[in-house]
What does this fold into?
Amino acid sequence: MASVEIAAEHERILREIESTDTNCIGPTLRSVYDGQEHGLFMEKLDARIRNHDRDIERMCNHHFQGFVDSITELLKVRGEAQKLKSQVTETNQRLQNDGKELITSMEELKKCRVQQRNIANTIDKLTHCLPVLEMYSRLQEQMSAKRYYPALCTLEQLEQTCLPRAGQYRFCSIMAENIPKLRTHIRDTAMSQLRDFLESIRKHSDKIGQTAVKQAQLQRSLDSSLSIQPRTLIGRRGRKEAMAAATESDGSPLSEQDSGILDVEDEDDDDDVSGAQELVDFSPVYRCLHIYTVLGLRDVFENYYRKQRRKQARLVLQPHSNMHETLEGYRRYFNQIVGFFVVEDHVLHTTRGLVNRAYVEELWELALSKIVAALRTHSSYCDDPNLVLDLKNLMVLFADTLQGYGFPVSQLFDMLLEMREQYGEILLKRWNITFRQVLDQDNYSPIPVSTEEEYRHYTSQFPMQDPELEKLPFPKKLPFSEFVPKVYCQLKEFIYACLKYSEDLHLSSTEVDDMIRKSTNLLLTRTLSNCLQYAIKKKNVGLAELVQVIINTTHLEQSCHFLEEFISNITNVPPDTVNATKLYGTSTFKDARHAAEAEIYTNLNTKIDQFLQLADYDWMASPPAGGTLSASDYLIDLIAFLNSTFSVFTNLPGTAIDHATLPGKVAQTACMSACKHISTSLMELLLNPEVRQISIGALHQLNADVKECESFARAGPVAGFQGDTLLLAFSDLRQLLDLFTQWDWSTYLVDYGKPTCKYLRVNPHISLALLEKNLAHHFICLSFCFLSPVLPVRRVLTGCRNR
It folds into this structure.
C-alpha cells in the first residue's frame, strides 16, 4: 500500500516537473531529496527520460524528409538572398548617393524650421516685453521731467497690465522690485513740493492779500461809478471755472511745474490789477492731491494739508507786538490774512473735497475772534485820530475784500462801531488840547476890522447876523474875540472828522446823523464845557476877560442852530426828524456864561475883601469935636475901583435875548452883589469877636464910610436900578448906625415890633451885641452915672431878644 502511494507520489512529482517552469521545481525536488525513496525516484525519472527520447526519435524520423527538403529549399533561398542582398546594397548605395543632397536640404530645412519657431517665440515674447520696456522708459523720462502724476499712472499701468503679460524675466523682477520704491519716491517728492508750496504761500501771503485788496478797491471804485452793475470780483469767477473745468475734464492738474508761487516780486503795480489767484501756481496742491488719491492715501493728504494750514493760520493771525505803531503794520497784518483766505477759497472751489465749506468757516470763525481781539488790544494804544481813521478805512477795505469772497464780516463792522467810540474819545482829547490852545492864545478883546475883506473873512468863519454892525463905517469892532470864530471852525472840523469815520460803514443817513450829533454833544457838554470852565477858573483872569467870555458864549449860543443846519446838510437828514438827537450847545454855553457871571461876582467880592483888609479902624476913637468926618482912604479907593469896574460892563450885548444876560443884568447883579458884600463885611467888622470895645467915635467914622457907600449907590454906577433899590443893600447897616450915633433908643423901644418902626431892619441880637461892646468901652472910660440911663435900654433889649 505504501509502495503504491510512493509510486503515485513519484508520478505526481514527475508530472509536476514536466508541466512546471524549471524555475519553480526547487521545492518539488527538495521534497524528493527529503524523502527515503530517492533511488526509486531516480529510476522512475530515468525510465521517463527514456520514454521521452523514444518519442522524440519517432517524431524526428517521421519529419526528417520534410527537414531535408526544407534544408534544400533553404540553400536555394540563400543564393537568391545573396543576389537580393547585392541588389539591395547597390540600390541602397545609389539611394544613399542620391539622398545626400536631400538630407542636407532636410537638415537645413529642419534648422530653418527651428529658427522660424524660435523667431516666432521671440516675437511673441518681445510683443509682451517691448511695451514693458517702452513704458518703463517713459516712466524714467517722466521721473526725470518731474511729471510725477503721469509717472504714477504709468507705474500703475506697468504693474497691473504690462508686467503680468511679459512673463517671468529677470528684468521684470527687477522692475517689480523697483515699483514700491518709485511710488515712495513720487509720494515723498510730491509731499516735498507741497511743503515748498505751503512755505512759499506763507511767505508771500501779504503780497497775495495786497493784490486782492487792490482788486477789491478797484472793484469798489467801479461800483461807485457804475452802481447799476452787479458787484463781482474781476477775474475771480472765470479763473475758478476754468480751473474746475480743466480739473474735471481729464482728472489731472493743470500744470506740472514745480513752482508754488509765481515771481510776485516782479509783478508791476499796473492800473489793470490781475486776480490774486493768478499770482499763485496751485499745481503742487493738485499734483499731490492726485498722487495721494491714486496711492489710496487721500485721507492722509487731506488731514496733513488741513493741519498745516491751521498752523499757518495761527501764525498769520498772530500780530506783531509793535503793529499799533504804524499803519503799515496793520496793512501787512490784514494783507496776510486776506492772502491766506484767498488761497483757501480758491482751493475750496477748485478741488474736490480737499477742504470743505465747514472747514473754511471754522478757520474764519477762529480768524474773526483773533482779529477782533488783536484790534481791540492794539487800537487801544493808539492816540492819533488820523491813524485810527486810516485804520478804519483799511478795515473797511479788508472787510469788503473778504466779503467779496463770501466770508461774513458783520463782526468786523461791529468792531468798527466799537472803535468809533474810541475814535470819538481820541478826537475829544485832541480837541480839548485845541480848545485850550485857542483859549490860552485869545486876547479876550473885540476883534478890530478895518476893511471889508477882513469883515467878510470873519463872517465867513462865523455866522454872525448884525445889521446894525454892518451899517457902521470902517474901522469897527466885532463884539466877540478871536475865540468865537476859531471855536466855531473847530466845531465844524470835529463834525467833519466824525463824518469821515462814518463813511463806508454801510450806515443809514439817520444813523450817521445820530452818531455825529451824539459825538458833537459830547464835545460841547464835556470837552468844550471843561475848557470854558478852565478858562474861567484859572488864575489871573480879570473882570474884563470874564465879561468878554460872557459875550463870546452868547454869540456861540446864538450859532447853535447854524450847527444844527450844518449837520443836517452834510447828512441829508432834516433837523425836525422824529427821534433826532438835538445839540446841547445852548445849555453848554448858558452854563459857561453862568459860571463866568458867578466868577465875576466871586472875583469882585474877593477884590472887595482885599480892600477891606486894609481897613484900620480905631475902635476906641473919641467922638468928633465938630465938623464932618471924611471917609476912610481904603473905602475911597474901593469906590474908585468899583466905578472903573462897572464901566466895563457897558460892553455887554444889548440885544433882547432870552437869557440871564439881558442889557445891564450882569452889571446890576454884580453891583448889587458888591454893595451887599460891602455892607455885610462892614457889619462883620462891627460884630468881630476880637473887637471887644467900640466907641461912639468909631461908629461915627464907620457912619461916614457908609455914607460914602450910599453916595456911590445913589450915583447909579450901573443903569437900570429903579429908585433907591441899590441903597437897600446898606439899609440894615444904616439903621443900626443911626440908632447908635443918634442914640435914639427911645424911639426904637417904643416902635419895636410895629410895621412903621423907624428901625425896622435893626436886629435886636445885633444891636444888643453892639451895645455890649459900647458899654464895655464906657465901663472903662466913663463913670457909672453915665451908665444909669443905658442900663434900662439893655434890659429892654434883652427882653426883646428873649422874645
